[in-house]
Amino acid sequence: MWRPTSGGLMKFLGASIVLLLFAHILLGLMSKDPAEGRPATPDKQQRRLRSHLPYRYVLNSAGLCRDRTPFLVFMVPVAPRQTAAREAIRKTWGAPSPDTLTLFFTGLPKVEELRPLQEELEQESRLYADIIQMDFMDSYQNLTLKTLMMMKWLGTHCPNALFAMKVDADIFVNVFHLRDLLRTSPKRGFITGSVIWDGMPRRDPSSKWYLSKELYPEDSFPPYVSGAGYVFSSDLAGQISWASTYVHLIPLEDVYVGLCLRVLGVRPVYSRSLFRNYFEIQKLEYDRCTFAQLIIVNKFKPSELLQVWPDFSKGHTNC
């Protein structure tokens, strides 16, 4: 019978250990994504794309979270010309506070407005340090890019924030009710708002929300939150940025976030009391005690926001 020599035995054992270590490492890489908090690699049919954000910052305040950990970051997509909306938000629900941060995200002005508007934005940025701008053209078609820009900024420059809210510039936000909701909300993998469960693509080319079969071949959308305003745990910002590399861009930014959530295996949560959606995406006439039960109300002009805020902020606890 053949018997290995002591030297041959040592070589055999050494090779076996190396093979076992290699198999262990390989299985580990196959079972999970190397980034903490990410799910396993998406379905094999999904091909990873290039980053959708090969753009640079024109205006940035990268150090805003360096010495603080905000409880909540408001991220407001705005057009460069929406100066009045930004001023109204700074004086109302987006006013500076020790544990919140309000930021405005925008692209480049149109060519014919570029010089005067860009100079105004730069001056405004020096004054408030709350404007983040990237060098793509600001337009409705680029809202999805702007949303990804927000997620990238939060994940890169303010990853320690607990929560963030993407909210449009024409929204009334009940920050008092929102804080109460978030105090008992999950700190990871959480997103809430007005959830659309049965959305379908519009195939009429004349529709503002038209999606061709070529761009989006599926007949329905996964659950997504209305883009008027939604709140999420900040860990999702980096995860959505990562998931976006598996999802082709479409011009419907809220649906797009829903597609990224599907890649991540995250389902949005519908926030409501017994009979009322907290995230009211319709226009309502102002009533202090009605608004005290809500988190957002849609379609507020800057002048309307400035008019009702003093009454609401002082009297909402009396309802």
TrEMBL record:
Q: A GO CC term?
A: Golgi membrane
GO biological process terms, semicolon-separated: lipid metabolic process; protein O-linked glycosylation
Signal peptide stretch: 1-28
The alphabetized UniProt keywords are:
Glycoprotein, Glycosyltransferase, Golgi apparatus, Lipid metabolism, Membrane, Signal, Signal-anchor, Transferase, Transmembrane, Transmembrane helix
Query: Where is the protein localized?
Result: Golgi apparatus membrane
The molecular function terms of the Gene Ontology recorded here are: N-acetyl-beta-D-glucosaminide beta-(1,3)-galactosyltransferase activity
Its membrane topology, per UniProt?
Single-pass type II membrane protein
User: What Enzyme Commission number(s) apply to this enzyme?
Assistant: 2.4.1.-
Q: Which InterPro entries did the record assign?
A: Glyco_trans_31
Q: Is the Transmembrane helix keyword given for this protein? A: yes
This one is known as Hexosyltransferase
Protein species of origin: Austrofundulus limnaeus
